[in-house]
Design a protein that fits this description.
The chain is an alpha/beta fold. The protein has 9 helices and 10 strands. Strand 3, helix 5 and strand 4 form a beta-alpha-beta unit. Keywords: Lyase.
Length: 235
């Protein structure tokens, strides 16, 4: 599947569900279950490589893991590339394509500084990635304002960031960990008809809010790890 075909799966109200994976074996299971796309979780991939989240894993190891995942499946792969690992846009795109990815996540947290990048700076960076990638990558731009449990109080800035990222060439915007159905609905309406990536909200049909993509993040990896820890305790 090409990036164009992946873009076509982003339909507001009929979201693409992405059970994020951490290695080749979990990717195969996702494909065997019938999902049309495999997405990686940077948190989970870094963890199984022995590192913490937030670009603590060596970039070469992260891309090697992505390449193993892409080789293991026949469906398209979208890679969580964190903040781009400090790579120039052209090199980042080249390495994603070499790994076999047709999509990527890029977040607006600058891990070196431990803070969100200014809106204009992040938009300029995303525009550089889009220019380097052309139409070869589906670009999912993460908006990190809601991390830490924040909600409606940061919605105006979140919308401003999302609109700037879309104008820079992002295909989809991702207000990660936005847990309020009301606030997510407002966000979706504010950037409509653009595609929005949401997370699961317990007890809420997020499809009815108009999202076009739903990510599970590191959720399945955490559940698997918790099961293994219990089983080891029983043994």
């Amino acid at each position: 599947m090409t990036a164009a075909a992946l873009r076509a799966l982003h339909v507001p109200g009929k979201p693409l569900l992405l059970p994020n994976v951490w290695d080749a074996d979990s990717a195969r299971l996702v494909e065997e279950a019938g999902f049309p796309v495999v997405a990686t979780s940077s948190h989970a991939v870094a963890a199984v490589l022995g590192y913490g989240d937030g670009e603590r894993a060596p970039v070469d190891e992260m891309f090697a893991a992505a390449a193993r995942i892409a080789r293991a499946v026949s469906v398209p792969v979208t890679v969580d590339a964190e903040s781009g690992y400090g790579l120039p846009a052209a090199e980042l795109v080249e390495r994603l394509l070499e790994a076999g990815a047709v999509g990527c996540n890029l977040e607006d947290t600058d891990h070196a500084r431990g803070a969100l990048r200014p809106i204009a700076e992040q938009a300029e960076w995303l525009a550089s990635v889009r220019e380097a990638a052309g139409d070869a990558l589906v670009l999912n731009a993460r908006v990190d304002l809601f991390l830490g449990g924040r909600g409606a109080e940061v919605l105006p800035e979140a919308i401003e960031r999302a609109k700037a990222y879309l104008a820079a060439g992002a295909d989809c915007v991702y207000p990660i960990l936005l847990r309020s159905a009301d606030v997510l609905g407002e966000f979706v309406r504010a950037v409509s008809p653009a595609a929005v990536n949401g997370n699961r909200i317990p007890g809420v049909d997020v499809a009815s809010l108009g999202v076009a993509r739903v990510s599970l993040g590191a959720g399945l990896w955490r559940e698997t790890r918790e099961w293994l820890a219990r089983r080891l305790g029983e043994l």
